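Request: Mind sharing a record?
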Amino acid sequence: MPYREVTMFEVKEVLRLWLTGVAKKRIAAQLGLDPKTVRHYLKAAIAAGITTAARSSATSAWSR
């Protein structure tokens, strides 16, 4: 089965939903992604310094 590319919009949506407190499995189901894909992008975001502690400032930045 070939893989499907994840769009930049989907990556941003994963981060936005995660920062608003949505569970990883729920994010995967909502966006039609594999839970492992969601974990992969969240792991990269955490490595880049994005944390759930910065929710209020980050969610306002994503809405721009």
About this structure: The mean pLDDT is 88.
